[in-house]
Design goal:
By secondary structure, the protein is mainly alpha-helical. Helices cover 68% and strands 0% of the residues.
């Protein structure tokens, strides 16, 4: 195993290994940032493990109503609730961390084209040819007495019930929204700290008041963006100002203890502000994750997107066919069996021309 080095939150310029002599020199592409920062690899590997395990035990979450089981497992319900506090904030923040938002010369057309290929093409492909067919095969409750057109238009396109794939259009609009707000704020000739501060405050306000968004066709997508844009912007801040957080690095044990305490309070329903807990957990993970990578974390990181796309629909097989089996059997099938199958399918698909449907 490679040696674990001391954690450093890096700005793009610091990750490049040199002090920025000019704004142009400070620009670091997402690809270079990821190659030069092993923590991003490790964090993405952790994120996909959390998501896959969370999907694997969702049958035992008390608040999940699609399928039921006679076997109550309070410990797994607790674990799933904790995973829900951090899994999507971590995924969104990683995208924000690698988003080179300061490259203001990137046109909107270029951004839309790139992100449509990366996110919307996989969204439609896996919705139409993977998730929906599997759900129809197992008699998914949400599709009962509905036409195929109704399912594809309302559930998938308008986002009322697109399963785990909701993440993709949500992330697409997070990119577009961030680009637009950046262009607007930079046109006002604000200093970078003010730009990033206003951006984060706007995202936090959107999350805070997302519950007031009225219902209309497509409102689920808008609400998802409002709720999760703040995590994307948190990743931007961690990337942009990471090298100025010396005090935070010195106090990382305090943040760890605070994250543990807030997690316990949230799970015991003593702390109603899950976003505060999510922020503490997010910062703690970025502070504590080592830079040294392993072949295993590298593999998971490289294949995380495909694993995410393939895995979730497969759990409907166990949830619908053997919901009352022993939890060890269900979890083993969901996590090891279907998780491994998702990794194999991703590996095979990336070796063919069909990798374009993975956004590559």
């Amino acid at each position: 195993m490679p040696p674990v080095t001391r954690f450093r939150l890096l700005s793009p310029s610091a990750a490049a290994g040199s002090c920025p002599a000019s704004p142009k020199q400070a620009v670091l592409t997402p690809e270079k940032a990821e190659r030069q920062d092993g923590r991003i690899v490790n964090l993405r590997a952790l994120a996909i493990l959390l998501v896959v395990f969370g999907h694997s035990i969702i049958l035992y979450q008390n608040s999940w109503s699609l399928y039921s089981t006679v076997r109550a497992v309070p410990a797994l319900d607790l674990v799933k609730r904790w995973i829900d506090l951090i899994q999507m904030p971590l995924f969104f923040s990683l995208s924000g961390y690698l988003f080179d938002a300061r490259r203001s010369k990137t046109s909107l057309a270029e951004l839309l084209s790139k992100k449509a290929k990366r996110l919307l093409l996989p969204f439609l492909s896996f919705a139409f040819f993977w998730m929906v067919p599997i759900r129809l095969l197992v008699g998914y409750p949400g599709y009962q007495n509905r036409s195929l057109w109704d399912i594809l238009w309302n559930s998938v396109i308008l986002g009322s019930d697109c399963g785990h794939l909701w993440f993709l259009p949500c992330l697409f609009f997070c990119f577009v929204l961030t680009w637009g707000v950046f262009r607007l704020l930079r046109a006002m000739r604000l200093t970078p700290p003010v730009v990033y501060g206003v951006l984060f405050l706007a995202a936090y306000a959107a999350a805070r008041y997302s519950c007031r968004i009225p219902g209309f066709p497509g409102s689920a997508v808008v609400r998802n963006v409002a709720v999760n844009w703040v995590w994307f912007c948190a990743g931007l801040l961690l990337c942009r100002f990471g090298d100025r957080m010396e005090l935070l690095r010195k106090c990382k044990i305090i943040f760890l203890l605070a994250a543990i305490g807030c997690s316990a309070a949230s799970l015991l329903r003593l702390l109603p502000y899950d976003r505060v807990t999510g922020m503490l957990l997010l910062l703690t993970l970025y502070l504590w994750t080592p830079e040294g990578t392993t072949p295993f974390t590298g593999f998971l990181s490289n294949h995380s997107f495909g694993i995410y796309l393939f895995h979730s629909p497969l759990i409907y097989l166990t949830c619908s066919q053997i919901p009352d089996a022993h939890p060890c059997i269900v979890i083993l099938l969901n996590f090891v069996g279907f998780g491994g199958l998702s990794a194999l399918l991703t590996t095979a698909m990336r070796k063919t021309k069909m990798k374009r449907f993975l956004g590559e």
